[in-house]
Design a protein that fits this description.
- With 266 residues, the chain is α/β, with parallel strands linked by helices.
- The protein is built from 9 helices and 14 strands.
- The chain has helices at 34-43, 61-64, 67-74, 82-91, 151-157, 171-175, 181-188, 196-206, 226-240; strands spanning 4-9, 16-20, 25-28, 53-55, 78-80, 100-102, 108-111, 114-120, 129-135, 138-143, 162-166, 213-217, 248-250, 261-262.
- The radius of gyration is 17 Å and the shape is globular.
- Counteracts the endogenous Pycsar antiviral defense system. Phosphodiesterase that enables metal-dependent hydrolysis of host cyclic nucleotide Pycsar defense signals such as cCMP and cUMP.
- Residues 13-218 form the Metallo-beta-lactamase domain.
Amino acid sequence: MGMRFTVLSSGSTGNATVVDNGETKVLIDVGFSAKKMEALMKERELAADTIDAIVITHEHSDHIKGLGALARKYDLPIYANEKTWVELDRQIGVIAEENKRVMETGSIEEFGTLRVESFGISHDAAEPVGYCFYDGEQKISVVTDLGYMSEKVKEKIVDSDALVLETNHDVDMLRVGHYPWSIKRRILGDKGHLSNEAAGEALCDVMTNKTKSVYMAHLSRDHNLMDLARLTVNNIVQERAPESKQLRLMDTYFDRSTKWDVLDSE
């Protein structure tokens, strides 16, 4: 059937996504309690005990809040690089040794016909990564929590059928917001989060005629609006790549899941 995916929820308070190719289901991050994760999956008629593996981007709480509880309850293997595992061991409780899987940055794991590749990104975590998922010619890329889009990251995610891409904040909203300047400087820095404008510029560099949908993810509830993110990204794309009529800019939600997005099988 090819690949499909759903962003179970995304935002500054929690993140989780599922990629499914009909043979294997992989969960990216567990940023909510186990109970909330079960409810989000139920929205998409997905049972937690059908998940084959969990892959972790980094150790911040909005990506691992329910990781330990969910993995223990359903005996799920967790994949992360060694530096991230050092941090996970301090936060998620005891995990069965056979379920602690090391997936080094830049490596590829094969789950049947589903291939998962990790790549390094810039964020203030131990060793943060994004992921690309491949099934035949199909490709889905998930990249959030990065201060800037490096050329190496662009090389990894270029020519994706679908992208889950961070549009964390509007720069002007952040600058006048209530956060102390130390936090604003962190968010705006090279190891912070991607702005709407930066996401739009990066998208123009990595999208091709193959790219059909881009999910705007990890929005700040204090310093962004989905309508503003969509407008900003769309304006940049229309200015730089006006021929890209097939591209769909899709919303994500902090409190509910997106519908399954099924990639074309052609």
